[in-house]
Design brief:
8 helices
């Protein structure tokens, strides 16, 4: 574990001592989804700091894509176990990490940016191809 990992997880532990609503893993997953989502941007957008910034809804779509890829049909169960039930929960995690100095936000970024778009539990479970049982 690197010093920056240690600092991140120390910050997460401090956040959880104050606000223990989410499992530790949820914080790491949101940051991983942020990284994967930024990496999926077009090269032009990645090079421009203004355009590289993700909206709340873009991050939510990235969270769903990564969760479905990592956990498949178990994604809703994993998120429930972590205490992450709504898009607003993802936003709260982001802003807790911003307050903890682990992420940055623009002055215009708001928790409301995560509301009113993606139905997190629905998106985690919709249209999952569970395959057809073979005889």
């Amino acid at each position: 574990m690197s010093a920056s990992d240690s600092t991140f997880w120390d910050t997460v532990d401090e956040i959880r001592e104050r606000d223990g609503g989410y499992r530790r893993e949820a914080f790491g997953f949101v940051v991983a989804a942020l990284g994967v989502t930024v990496q999926s941007l077009s090269p032009e957008r990645k090079l421009d700091p203004e355009r590289r910034h993700l909206s709340g809804q873009e991050l939510l779509h990235g969270v769903v894509r990564l969760a479905r890829g990592e956990f498949g049909a178990l994604a809703p169960t994993v998120f429930k176990e972590w205490g992450v039930l709504t898009s607003e929960d993802v936003g709260r995690i982001v802003f807790l990490l911003v307050e903890g100095g682990q992420l940055s936000a623009r002055p215009e970024d708001r928790l409301d940016d995560f509301a009113g778009g993606v139905d997190l539990m629905g998106a985690l479970s919709e249209k999952l191809d569970l395959g057809t049982p073979r005889a």
